[in-house]
Amino acid sequence: MNLEIFHKIKSNPIIYNYLREESYHYKYLYRNSNHLKEIESLAKEKYKLRSVDKIERIKDNIDLIKSFMDVLN
What we know:
The protein starts with a helix and ends with a helix. Helices cover 81% and strands 0% of the residues. It has helices at residues 3-11, 13-21, 25-31, 35-46, 51-72. It is rod-shaped.
């Protein structure tokens, strides 16, 4: 793993926190530095930061507001 990859990890808190919890991924980074993109997608999936997760969260909030409105009526 070169210094550039290490800097990218340190500058991105999502990847950094994910690697602190799932440290076995360092093994793959030492073998292949292109594994960083896969780690980023895994981190976004774990922390629910994908666009699909954001849409799901908005949908849940709308359903919650709708249920409050139904109770008030």
